[in-house]
Amino acid sequence: MSKEPGAEKWVPHDGGMRKVRATLGDCRGCELWEDAEQAVAGEGPVRSRMMLVGETPGDHEDKEGHVFVGPAGRLLDRALDEAGIKRSDIYLTNAVKHFRFEREGKRRIHKTPSAGQITACHPWLARELDIVKPALVVIMGAVAARTLMGPSFKVTQHRGEKVELPDGGTAIATVHPSAVVRSQDFTRDLGLFVDDLRAAVALLD
């Protein structure tokens, strides 16, 4: 495993989101770029009041170059609609910008990023937050929680609660939509996920 110093040297500190998207593909801050098809940038209005942060691109996202376009993305779209949130109004991104996977025959199976990879990629997310300046961040899943709140934060303990980010910003934590996709009690867990998104809307109101 290579020992790159992290993404900081590749992250532009001027030029706005357009420059972030233009330079993201050059990042060599960790080894994930070696096997992934491409880096996947966040998407949405640059002045969104709400930012949703997930884990990493999946197989579909890695191939298509867009966030949340696979099964978890379709589930997220459904939940957003039920919660009264327009996807076009929010900024969607991931804590880690390259797909981490292991091969199983011809299939590429998602693998959770390591702590080192999460840390290495953090400067990209920090820059997105600095540009968008959302009034509320929705933390989706453990990887996003580790990135934004630190390793001791547990989504299961704080789900649906208003929490304060280290920089003083406001956030709310929930599960990653992929957890709902895999759920053995889909109807219940979709309802809980939608409830969390409605709680996020209430915080903005």
TrEMBL record:
SUPFAM superfamilies: Uracil-DNA glycosylase-like. InterPro entries: UDG_Type-4/5, Ura-DNA_glyco_family4, Uracil-DNA_glycosylase-like, Uracil-DNA_glycosylase-like_sf. One of its GO terms (biological process) is DNA repair. GO terms for molecular function: 4 iron, 4 sulfur cluster binding; deaminated base DNA N-glycosylase activity; metal ion binding. Pfam families: UDG. Keywords: 4Fe-4S, DNA damage, DNA repair, Hydrolase, Iron, Iron-sulfur, Metal-binding. Residues 41-198 form the Uracil-DNA glycosylase-like domain. PANTHER family: TYPE-4 URACIL-DNA GLYCOSYLASE (PTHR33693:SF9), TYPE-5 URACIL-DNA GLYCOSYLASE (PTHR33693). Belongs to the uracil-DNA glycosylase (UDG) superfamily. Type 4 (UDGa) family. NCBIfam families: UDG_fam4, UDG_fam_dom. This is Type-4 uracil-DNA glycosylase. It comes from Kribbella jiaozuonensis. The lineage of its organism: Bacteria, Bacillati, Actinomycetota, Actinomycetes, Propionibacteriales.
